[in-house]
């Protein structure tokens, strides 16, 4: 059963829901994403098999900032936490987005690590 979506109808239904919510007639369903904290940063970076230099460069922060996160002296803020969430939940997306020089290295290390784990 491959029913085709009616996007226009879905948009109108969404607008109606918002209007009812503003009038106090409806409660909207909300979802909160749990964003990574400093305690997760080192594990996320190791899972990507990146050095601190590589990961800091990708995150757009100084290595010292990354080290402060990993040692739990500071908490990542704003967009950094969102990017860490992507790195945690979809590491393949991060590896794909890395510059080729880093991606080639990490892909090679990642494959070697997988071979090492599977041979145990």
CATH 2nd-level architecture of the domain at 38-105 = Orthogonal Bundle
Kindly provide the radius of gyration, computed on alpha-carbon positions and rounded to a whole number of angstroms: 21 Å
The class by helix and strand makeup works out as mainly alpha
Strand content: under 5%
Shape: elongated
- Counted beta strands: 0
Task: Explain this structure.
With 120 residues, the protein is mainly α. The protein has a domain at 38-105: 434 Repressor (Amino-terminal Domain), CATH 1.10.260. It contains seven helices and no strands. It has helices at residues 7-22, 38-48, 52-59, 63-70, 78-89, 91-97, 100-118. 15% of the residues are buried.
Topology (elements, then pairings):
Elements: H1 7-22, H2 38-48, H3 52-59, H4 63-70, H5 78-89, H6 91-97, H7 100-118
Helix pairs in contact: 2-4, 3-4, 5-6
Offer a concise description of the structure.
The protein contains seven helices and no strands. By secondary structure, the chain is mostly helical.
Task: Write out key terms for the chains shown.
disordered C terminus, mainly alpha, 0% strand, 120 residues, 434 Repressor (Amino-terminal Domain)
């Amino acid at each position: 059963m491959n029913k085709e979506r009616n996007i226009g109808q879905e948009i109108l239904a969404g607008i109606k829901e918002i209007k009812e919510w503003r009038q106090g007639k409806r409660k909207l369903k909300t979802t909160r994403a749990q964003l990574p904290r400093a305690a997760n940063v080192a594990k996320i970076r190791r899972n990507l098999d990146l050095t601190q230099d590589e990961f800091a460069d990708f995150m757009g922060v100084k290595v010292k900032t990354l080290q402060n996160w990993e040692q739990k002296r500071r908490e990542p803020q704003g967009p950094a936490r969102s990017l860490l969430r992507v790195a945690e939940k979809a590491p393949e997306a991060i590896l794909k987005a890395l510059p080729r020089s880093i991606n080639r290295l990490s892909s090679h290390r990642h494959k070697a690590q997988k071979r090492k784990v599977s041979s145990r």
